Amino acid sequence: MAENTTQVENNKADVKKLSFERAMEELESIVKRLEDGKVPLEESVAIYERGEALKRRCEELLRQAEARVDKITTDASGQPTGTEPLDVQ
Which residues are within 8 A (CB) of 45 and not within 5 positions of it... i.e. 6 or more apart? Predict the structure, then answer.
């Protein structure tokens, strides 16, 4: 049991190091495998859990990117006057 716990912890740590693109690629692969329905139940549960961790990683990276995006402000003539935080909802 301890070996499985260590493996799960390592997988979570690995997910935290992934780029957005790599996490999305792996998440898409997991979804495809689950949709195919040819994965044994125990493996399905394990890859579903990894998929959840990947989804959270992607959401985290998107929030970080949104926080860094600025909206360009312009004056009445359309000339740029500066930037302000982008209000993403």
Answer: none
